[in-house]
Design a protein that fits this description.
Layout lengths: L24 E4 L5 E3 L17 E3 L3
Antiparallel strand pairs: 1-2, 1-3
């Protein structure tokens, strides 16, 4: 499994994170919850919105 780094974080080789995104970030359109994973969750853990209320969040 690949690791996701926060935008602006610098790795051991000195490469700035955000230059290579290893997995998409999803945003709940109801409450703004963000998660980095292959697909959005079935239900938002914060507001309980369904998966169809998520959108891919551009970084």
């Amino acid at each position: 499994m690949e690791e996701y780094r926060a935008k602006g974080e610098i790795d051991a080789e000195g490469a700035k994170a955000g230059s290579v995104r290893t997995m998409p970030v999803w945003r709940c359109k109801v409450c703004g919850y963000l998660c980095a994973r292959e697909r959005p969750p079935n239900v938002c853990p914060i507001c309980k919105a369904d998966q169809d209320r998520f959108e891919e969040f551009p970084l």
